[in-house]
Amino acid sequence: MPSIRLGIVGKGGVGKTTVAGLVARAYVERGQRVVAIDTDSNPNLGLSLGLTLAETEDVPVLPRSIIVGSGGSTTADRLIAEYGRETPAGPTLLSAIRVAEAGAGCTCGGHATVRGMLADALSDVDVVLVDMEAGLEHLSRSGGTLAYADVLLVVCEPTRKSVLTATRTSALADELGIPVTLAVGNKAQSAEDADFFADTLNDNGLSLAAVLPFDPQIAAADRGGADEDAVTPAALTAAVEQILAAVADTRAAVG
Ligand SMILES: Nc1ncnc2c1ncn2[C@@H]1O[C@H](COP(=O)(O)OP(=O)(O)O)[C@@H](O)[C@H]1O
Ligand SMILES: [Mg+2]
Question: Has this prediction a pTM greater than 0.85?
Answer without folding.
Answer: yes
